[in-house]
Amino acid sequence: MTAINSIASTASTTSTYTAKGFSGLVSGMDTESVVESMTADIQAKIDKVKQEQQKNTWKQDAYRTVIASLINFQDKYLSYSSPSTNLLSSAIYNCSKKTSQGANASKISVTSTSNSNNAAYQVSSVKSLATKARYTGACGLGSNEISTGSIDFGDRTVNVASGKEMEITYNNVRYSVTIPENGTTDSDFQALSMQSALNEALRSVTLEDGSGTLAEKIGFDLSGDTLSLKSLYSGSTNTFSISGGDSEALAALGFSAGQSGSAASAIEGTSAVDVVQTKAFSLEGKKLTFDLDGLSKTISFDASDSAAITGAGDDAAKLQKLAETINSKLAAAFGANKIVADVTDGTKIGFTVTDSTSILKISSTSSDTIGSGSIFGMESGITNRLNTHKTLAELGFTPTSKDASDPDNTSLYAYKITVNGKEFEFKGDDEISTVLNKINNDETAGINITYLSTTNKFSIAADQSGSTGKIDIQDSTGGGNLAAALFGDTAAISAGTVKGTDLVMTIKYDGDASETTLTRSSNSVTVDGISFNVEGTFGWTGAEGSEVRDTTAEAVTFKNTSDTDNAVSVIKQMVEDYNKIIDSVNELVTTKSRESTKNGQNVYEPLTDAQKKDMTSEEIEAWETKAKAGILFGDSTLTQLASSLRFAFSSKVGDLGFGKDIGITTASSYSGNGKLSIDEDKLREALTNNPEKVKEMFVSSAEDAPNSAMSNLSGGFAVRMQNLFESYAKSTGSYKGKLVQLAGLQNNTTTSNNYIARQQKILDNKLETLQTLLATRQDRYQSQFTKLEQYISQMNAQSSWLSSSMS
Hints:
Domain Flagellar hook-associated protein 2 N-terminal: 27-132
Number of helices: 20
Protein name: Flagellar hook-associated protein 2
Strand content: 15-25%
Organism: Aminipila luticellarii
Distance between the termini: 18 Å
Strand order of the largest sheet: 8-7-11-12
Main location: secreted
Largest sheet: 4 strands, antiparallel
Family: Belongs to the FliD family.
């Protein structure tokens, strides 16, 4: 009994069915093939669904190709964004042109000609041109000199870390961190101030991997007066270190190069913050950058320069030596006397330029050099011209009023000025550029103000030319000096304004001996169908106000010319592209599916996954090319489009006639599919003799029609094409074109909102159901065959045991 149990246990262990590759090992059956055969009906249904999906994809691609051709055609020939080829624009058909003739022809430039009026006349004289009222006056701000603040040669209380660099390595990437300028010089608050300044500096450093800034990963903390640098994420594996920087600044902050930290261990300062220190006056290492008319040069002071200045004697002698030293360096950089430094007011250095039109700007990259409380005591970027980015309060204008509840708040100061009767109000924190832009963009004010930095003047011009234009700028009632300080007082503006003038010209019609005087506010005029620009005077002599008519001056006449080349070229291009669309659409609806007997099929159906396994990529590509053919054979929507394209140019345009009347003929045979042909000579003749008719045959409005099909054949040819193409390819608005409703467009709201996309979704759900059913059936059959293998194995084992027992 013991032997039987042992044998049975061994047999059940070794015959377990687990892997497809070894199925039928005992029975000798190819169970995988049997399972595939038993589930072939489900697999066939899956293949059928996938084939339907592939057909839908091919159909969608074909539809979208047609949509793209219609949209491209519209963009080229029916859109105002393509003015040179837009057949909806009247300009295309304006082939009749006039050119000015005569000795004074250069004074009259013809810009366009209307064909509605061909009255013959000549311009016999131009007495004056239309000009704008204009005023140019010196700006009340800015000067030829830039001055430093008072320079103190005594000991200085400075922030030794301000403007200095420190280097922090984070995750093996080294970053340069610039400590903000103008750090505190108050020793009582230096630790707290530097913590804030350092964290601000971290916020300005972007991480190399784009994941944020250093301030989002690490930050400076403060314990008493001692700083530390720690990770902001306790679980982070990131590492960081202070890898370098200005040694004096690091020491004053309590750090040193080489200190490292991690999420678990902060970098601790080894001493209290001590950045506010008293230093002897020194210019060693200081730099000043001068920008003269765009040429930038930097002068530097070394130890010998500083020693020579501080050892020159009393403060007056030191200041004089400083001016001499600067002049020597400026001469070497720009040439002698281009920029001159002089002692002014006994304690300052003034910088002047010898050329009054030169623009000078001074800045610095070294700490404690310029800026509030610095050695030179002037702001960075200071210039000898008006800084339009300065606020009204910073420039010190007298306000019209102050805020009663907070009179010391300069940002709430009110400044009021009146421009041509329109009052403007600005606040103390408004920049000069804001003032100028607000006035310039106001139609009621009617002027344009331009700051001329080269001459430090304002140029003011009326928006409209002619004698009615005016310039009246003054401070509003109630006080304030904004207008006067910027532009000059009312009397100066009034006296300096050059009044605008009107265009005064005379014309003479053919057959009329008398002249007609025309007065216009613009030099661009249209007279009886001819538009032209007047660019000079003639026919008058003498000074302004006492002109005398010069009857010997030759009049300007106009000559008719015709240029049909552009219109003919555009229409010919349109016909070619239109015919291409006709060909492509008709090919889709008339091409039948190709027959095939391969794999027992009657047509080239999309290949199944199983079929593709036995084919090369070239064979698959060739097969699918044939399978796509005829995918839209007889399609009703494209058939309707083909029909509309056939008749778009063949039907009459109102009372104007047919396309053939202007040289555009539609193929009369059915096989011609309505393709167009051009009689170029006839088209040119129509454009030359009656361009207005040609225009109307293209752009006349569509008439009301009882249905959409008829409306596509109403109006001019361009209007018909526009309506027709939109009815099939429109992708915006509530109503979409027929083809867009069917197939949608890529990267558009219709991408997933179309008929085919909805059908694909239904098929996706059906496919998922079938694939689940297939997997369930296969698992069930495989389980059954596994058990069969086990039973056979057990029977074989028992048979062997019995056989051995009997022998």
